[in-house]
Design brief:
Blueprint (H helix, E strand, L loop, with lengths): L8 E6 L15 H16 L4 H6 L2 E12 L8 E11 L3 E10 L5 E13 L12 H9 L3
Antiparallel strand pairs: 1-3, 2-5, 3-4, 4-5
Length: about 140
């Protein structure tokens, strides 16, 4: 029997002062960190510690990041990052993201990240097949 599909994972965070420019606007580079934090927390909720994966020699290297900025996020704004799995391949996964400001619901950014599974025990780290448990967790979250 197939597992039911789960809704997008939601992670909340506050824009910190160090992430903003002189005008109090979240710097564009901060959004990449927000996406990464949401992904790692989603995996942890699914019982997949990213630190444990790395200790086993498994990494998820970013192949591509696409971001579209829609509205500024400001110091102390609370954001909710909705993370969904859009595609799972043998050795990669594509995640979609939507970042909204809590309160007014404005979409501040949306984007995607393609991650390649790599073998961290080798240099340079070559691609490798996604481990079965990791693949199953991502598939359970497919959009």
């Amino acid at each position: 029997m197939d597992q039911p599909r789960r809704p997008p994972y939601e992670h909340r965070l506050h824009v910190r002062y160090a992430e903003t420019d002189q005008m109090g606007v979240a710097h564009h580079s901060s959004y990449v960190l927000y996406l990464e934090e949401a992904r790692i927390r989603m995996m942890a909720e699914d019982g997949l510690s990213y630190a444990a994966l790395e200790r086993m020699g498994i990494g998820l290297a970013v192949r591509r990041i696409d971001l579209r900025y829609r509205q500024p996020a400001y110091f102390e704004d609370q954001l909710v990052i909705r993370t969904r799995v859009e595609r799972v391949r043998a050795a990669s996964v594509l995640l979609g993201y939507e970042l909204r400001r809590v309160g007014d619901g404005e979409c501040v950014a949306e984007g995607s990240a393609e991650l390649a599974c790599v073998d961290l025990r080798q240099r340079p780290a070559p691609p490798r097949i996604l481990p079965a448990d990791l693949r199953a967790a991502f598939e359970a979250r497919m959009a």
